[in-house]
Amino acid sequence: MSENLEHSFVKQLTDNQNIIHKICRLYTDCEDAHKDLFQEITIQLWKAFPKFRGDSKFSTWAYRVALNTAITLYRKNKRTVATVEYEGRQHFIKEVDYNYEEEEQIKLMYKAVYQLNDIEKALVFMYLEDKDYREIAETLGISEVNARVKMNRIKGKLKKILNP
């Protein structure tokens, strides 16, 4: 693989790592699992990067790969992530500080979101990231109308969870 491709990947990953951290936070409940999932998503992104054609934004593509990786690994309620050894050049990506001691309201929201199924979690995450329904539908592989209907149902579900 060319050095330019590697540098391009590292730059894109560095610029978009908050997306991956947020997905990890959504699908894990402790710092070690978060780090393991982050590493596995990074490996999957790296393996798939040569096939990234740029038809969509890198962030949209990264969402799709990261969500698919998280859903696949945690669908069966796995608590540990089987990682893959990467024997290539080592790149050092400066990790953005990620504060686990967040405000009480955010913790309550995450607690409510944990109760949703995998697809609902992904939809809420993208909605909270201000993604439009077209991009949400494209990323999740559903119709735009279906994304809107699902989001309205999820909002009602979250209201019941947060205000029983």
UniProtKB/TrEMBL annotation:
This is RNA polymerase sigma-70 factor, ECF subfamily. PANTHER family: RNA POLYMERASE ECF-TYPE SIGMA FACTO (PTHR43133), RNA POLYMERASE ECF-TYPE SIGMA FACTOR (PTHR43133:SF45). The keyword Glycosyltransferase does not apply. Gene3D superfamilies: 1.10.1740.10, Winged helix-like DNA-binding domain superfamily/Winged helix DNA-binding domain. NCBIfam families: sigma70-ECF. Keywords: Sigma factor, Transcription, Transcription regulation. GO terms for molecular function: DNA binding; sigma factor activity. The keyword Transport does not apply. One of its GO terms (biological process) is DNA-templated transcription initiation. Residues 111-158 form the RNA polymerase sigma factor 70 region 4 type domain. It comes from Flavobacterium degerlachei. Residues 15-80 form the RNA polymerase sigma-70 region domain. Belongs to the sigma-70 factor family. ECF subfamily.
